[in-house]
Amino acid sequence: MAQLDTRQKLEILADAAKYDASCASSGTAKRNSRDGKGLGSTEGMGICHAYAPDGRCISLLKILLTNSCIFDCHYCINRKSSNVRRARFTADEVVKLTIAFYKRNYIEGLFLSSGIIRSSNYTMEQMVEVARALREDHHFRGYIHLKTIPDADPELVRLAGLYADRVSINVELPTAGGLKRLAPEKDGARIEGAMADVKSSIIDTRDAAKRYKSAPRFAPAGQSTQMIVGADAATDRDIVSRASTLYDRFQLRRVYYSAFSPIPDASAVLPLQRPPLMREHRLYQSDWLMRFYEYQPHEVVAAADDATGMLPLDIDPKLAWALKFRQHFPVDVNRAPRELLLRVPGLGVKAVNGILASRRWRRLRLDDVARLTVSVAKLRPFIVTEDWRPVILSDRADLKTLVVPKKKKEQLELFAA
């Protein structure tokens, strides 16, 4: 490997980290002030935006320790057989970069992942050393997210959780068959075993903290995972079902979905085209329904097409469910319980809370509901108010055409040049 300076390594390893969706980045136009005009820049390599556990939007240094890897997963651009430029940070270089960026107020934390070098244990040791040095040697109080390696020794994963705010272990693909076909060197049982160990450690330290003030914290922001969408034949029904199982079994904070992106020198077993990015968006919406709108997994799955198992791309899953199960509507906003109000297309959690608070004092009219939402037009077929009852509208065969938003411009590619 040719000798590279720190800036060259940062350029390579920050770019390689962009495919990890569990720390989402925000895109914008490139601007700088090198000509002496203006202030600031949007070109900080490796800096991305993510959300802290308390809801704050924070800036993180998002990099790989190395993009070299001994594994040969078909879908990964950093796989062993890939013809990409390689680079590697030492643990000390990552620590120095993080501190330097933090002191300049560029970032508020670190997201660190890595390819596998030498062995899973060796790589995990290097990542843990980064977190340890930041916390113990430099007394770093910023946010740290470590992407752990399921094949590593459980004690190393435990140490990662003691230093990091959040740890994540990728399940990679929604189905066992897809993982075996596209990542034969990875073991689904070992991945789930590592996630179960992290869950147990989180629970144990929480229980200890209730009894002892000095009890150590273990991944206080919980654990997350990521699934690649569109690399195998898994349907949206498969993905939603898998995500709900992961939430239940391992008490995950988030499941991230990453649309498969074709890579150079791709394997013949991979699809030639990427899936629509709208598919990824619909999966995030379905995830939101389960986490915040009290939908059961089987209800979200029911919104998918019966024949293909795919969620519709032209409308969101909540509207798709409402159109498919019109017998549950219209809903009387002055009488319906919270769980039914949350199923009304166009009513968010904040709007439902507003309705529940307001109707304690008076009966709500259509104008009252309109003040709580962005557009009342989408709501009309699905609600009853003091002065509105959609008797004819809700029974129309062409209802979908009335509530589906107008087609927007073609969506841009995720990593277009």
Automatic annotation (TrEMBL):
All residue ranges annotated as the Elp3/MiaA/NifB-like radical SAM core domain in the record: 59-286
GO molecular function list: catalytic activity; iron-sulfur cluster binding; metal ion binding
Keywords: Iron, Iron-sulfur, Metal-binding, S-adenosyl-L-methionine
InterPro entries the UniProt entry points to: Aldolase_TIM (IPR013785), DNA_rSAM_put (IPR023874), Elp3/MiaA/NifB-like_rSAM (IPR006638), Endo/Exo/Phosphatase_dom_1 (IPR051675), rSAM (IPR007197), rSAM_sf (IPR058240), RuvA_2-like (IPR010994)
This protein's record includes keyword Metal-binding: yes
Name of a matching Pfam family: Radical_SAM
Cofactor: [4Fe-4S] cluster
NCBIfam families tied to this protein: rSAM_link_UDG
Protein name: Putative DNA modification/repair radical SAM protein
Annotated source species: Sphingomonas carotinifaciens
